[in-house]
User: Fold this.
Amino acid sequence: MDKDIYILGIETSCDETAASVIKNGNEIISNIVASQIQSQQRFGGVVPEIASRHHVEQITLVIEEALSEAGLEPMELDAVAVTEGPGLVGALLIGINAAKAFAFANGLPIIGVHHIAGHIYANQLMQPMEFPLLALIVSGGHTELVLMENHGSFKLIGETRDDAAGEAYDKVARVLGLPYPGGPAIDRLAHESDDAVEFPRAWLELDSYDFSFSGLKSAVINYKHNLEQKGGEVIPAHVAAGFQQSVVEVLTTKTLKAAKEYNVKQVIAAGGVAANKGLRASLEAAFENEGIPFYVPPISLCTDNAAMIAAAGTAMFVDGQRGNMGMNGRPGMSLTSWSK
Assistant:
């Protein structure tokens, strides 16, 4: 790069309204997030229409705050990167239209970023990415293993066949009467427990890197119902510990196996569930024992944010990728390699 590159990132795929300015793809100049958790907690999950309304209220404010904190004027930016998909279509459209309006008004190119690519590139904000690398993405809507041979090259080698890990966490938390979001609540209870209920592990076929958590969720529900029908006491901490042990063991074992098979130089974790203390500890211990470099972003960069979108957008910008004013929300957008 002949000069410093400044990218404004915008993220509105679900219930976080976020804007960020990133320098050269690896330095956070500003990172603003307006969370909707308190609003959505009343419903035990994200209500799409309410999420969209909150985005409308917050999007201009967070963009202005991101630029103010960065100390930059719009003409000093090189491009605008925005989450194009996947996500809630109404929520995506708020961010995309705000990005198009900002880009048009200031004569800037616009870049559409895949949300999961953003989660992967959050790691580049902490250390350089070395290829080939393996990325474990664990979030509310995604549980995937992605092999990268280079920037912009994404090979999906494993994915969830039903519930994603984060989705299973939220559903089990609801069954146990825990608050939304369920992941942090279960993680906290699991660490407080001195005992754990034994739940099954879904390994699927011998050579499969796919995941399945719906059976585990059903096992938790059946355990609770059967125990209650017998007049027994359900101890949420014991259930949470057993559930988390099952999820963590499957994720760690399959990620480690894939890392060895593909002889990667680096393994990274990304997504909201990567903030889970139990999972982080298990992955760190497993890869330290094998001598394979493993990295996971700080918790603030695991959950949805715009810094990760700007980081991925910078790599795309350098590679010559550009969007256009016809960009639309793509809730089912596939993670495929961007064109060279």
The chain is about 45% helix and 15% strand. Residues 236-261 form the longest helix (26 residues). The chain has two domains: 6-121+302-318, 131-296.
